[in-house]
Design a protein that fits this description.
- The complex is a heterodimer of chains A (about 100) and B (about 375).
- By secondary structure, chain A is α+β, with helices and mostly antiparallel strands.
- Chain A has helices at about 45-50, 60-70, 75-90, and strands spanning about 15-20, 25, 35, 40-45, 95.
- In chain A, the strands form 2 sheets. Chain A has a 3-stranded antiparallel β-sheet, with helices on one face. In chain A, strands 1-5 form a two-stranded antiparallel ribbon.
- In chain A, α2 crosses α3.
- The longest helix of chain A has 17 residues, at about 75-90.
- By secondary structure, chain B is α/β, with parallel strands linked by helices.
- Chain B has 15 helices and 9 strands.
- The longest helix of chain B has 17 residues, at about 195-215.
- The interface of A and B includes residues 25, 36 and 38 of A.
Chain lengths: ~100, ~375
């Protein structure tokens, strides 16, 4: 028996943005990317950083395309990764979708 | 041992406060004269950022009592710090909220004593509740993210549902329901503040249900009343690991309550030493850093890097020795001290309801002009 994770339903035209009060910044002590929020710090993995660095008003479709061109990777697989990461960030109230 | 880098600085910029909450964690014998000047704070903020600090909380006392608060917020933003204001809201008029926003303030944590005026004002020892509601509206209008903080104790714990309703009404992003922890004035007033076991059980259910109901809308943080726990809180995530506090006169503290709870610890001052040296090398930051200082049962405990032996200040206040295991721990040889306190509260037919209100530290008259409080 296998379990498959459902792919989160985020529309191609959705525009992900950092939630109010959340700042994306480089931690100068480690060189890593972090999200700063009212009561905490979230250290980002490379995938999350690459996605969030492009959450500047672009749509999900545009973000996936930009990443696919830059990393020369499979569009469908990448779209799934991006959706999963964004869904996780949204659930933790770190981003908002408009 | 090698010092890690700190993440957050609590800047207690003044001990003055227009409220008199009997649960205040400020020292009961505080000195407020010879406060750090604006330029000294700015220098210290830059030193903290160089040390690796990413977040600063401006607190007190009431930080709005200092006119230079927007300048300090701006300095913190220039040093790339995330800036949080921890305030009673008293003195936060339209002009100030806009100046703070323009200075780059990232977030405000507004305290409430309860959900309605009568009880709130009685707890605060001042007419404050209506000002807080007004302050919340101003913060929303200015577009600054808003967290509410309720300190929970025996007199208000049964109103948890109404407090959560208030947070919804005020459209807070986040609400902290924090059972009072017994330091400073709260330690002095413990008999009047500690809730009963029955109250604590009910409050936990209310908080858990609200957390589920409001998921995705309001983040609810429920801070446990640690006397009722069987294992201690992981205080500060370990002494001298992530946090530092600087008090109004520039003493650097591993924990904001350490100056009053641990009288034999000597704290260094930013006027005499670089912050980097104080963090890495000073005796006060190294005394309980890591695990070598730990006595049994902590030393051989598998939890020792999870709860770090609990709280040093609590050990000092309850057992007279800051190096003891936090007596909240069921494995502590001193757990009976906590149990005796709980027994008294839970068996008394009529518990003590009096308390001593917090008073401001003596301030020389030339500093009174700092105050902008009505």
């Amino acid at each position: 028996m296998t379990f498959t994770m459902p792919i989160p339903q985020i529309a191609d035209a959705a525009q992900p943005r950092l939630a109010k009060g959340v700042r994306l910044q480089t931690d100068s002590a480690t060189g890593k990317s972090v999200l700063l929020l009212p009561e905490g710090i979230v250290e980002l993995n490379e995938t999350a950083h690459e996605i969030l660095a492009r959450c500047d008003g672009r749509t999900l479709r545009e973000i996936v395309q930009a990443l696919a061109e830059e990393y020369d990777s499979n569009l469908a697989a990448l779209a799934t990764d991006v959706r999963e990461t964004l869904a996780d960030l949204q659930q933790r109230k770190l981003i908002e979708l408009t | 041992m090698t010092a890690p880098r700190p993440y957050a600085l609590l800047a207690e910029i003044t001990y003055r406060c227009p409220l008199h909450c009997p649960y205040c964690s400020n020292p009961t014998q505080a000195r407020n004269n010879d406060q750090l000047a604006t330029d000294e704070w700015k220098r210290v903020i830059r030193e903290a950022a160089d040390l690796g600090v990413l977040q600063i909380g401006f607190s007190g006392g009431e930080p709005l009592a200092r006119r230079d608060l927007p300048d300090l917020v701006r300095a913190a933003r220039e040093a790339n710090l995330y800036t949080n204001l921890i305030t009673s809201g008293i003195g936060l008029d339209d002009e100030r909220v806009h100046r703070l926003r323009d200075a780059g303030l990232d977030s405000i944590q507004l305290s409430f004593q309860s959900d309605e005026s009568d009880l709130s004002d009685e707890i605060a020892g001042a007419r404050a509740h209506q000002h807080k509601l007004d302050a919340a509206a101003r913060i929303r209008a200015a577009g600054i993210p808003l967290s509410l903080n309720f300190v929970i104790h025996r007199r208000n714990i049964d109103r948890l549902p109404q407090m959560i309703d208030l947070a919804e009404t005020l459209e807070a992003e986040r609400v902290e329901l924090a059972n009072v922890q017994f330091y400073g004035w709260a330690f002095l007033n413990r008999a009047g503040l500690l809730p009963t076991r029955e109250q604590v059980t009910r409050a936990r259910e209310v908080a858990t249900a609200a957390k589920a109901r409001l998921a995705g809308k309001i983040d609810i943080f429920y801070v446990l009343p640690d006397y009722y726990e069987v294992r201690p809180k992981p205080c500060l995530n370990g002494w001298g690991q992530r946090y530092l506090t600087i008090n109004p006169i520039g003493d650097v503290l591993p924990c904001p309550t350490a100056s009053s709870a641990i009288p034999d610890l000597r704290f260094e001052n930013v006027r005499a030493h670089a912050l980097d040296w104080i963090w890495r090398e000073s005796e006060s930051f190294n005394r309980f850093r890591g695990t070598e200082w730990m006595p049994e049962p902590c030393q051989s405990c598998p939890q020792r890097e999870i709860d770090f032996g609990g709280c040093r200040c609590q050990a000092a206040l309850l057992t007279g020795n800051a190096a003891n295991t936090d007596p909240v721990c069921e494995l502590s040889p001193n757990r009976a001290i906590v149990d005796a306190v709980l027994h008294d509260i839970n068996s008394a037919a009529e518990q003590a309801c009096g308390w001593t209100y917090r008073v401001n530290p003596m301030t020389p008259s030339h500093l009174e002009s700092d105050a902008v409080l009505g």
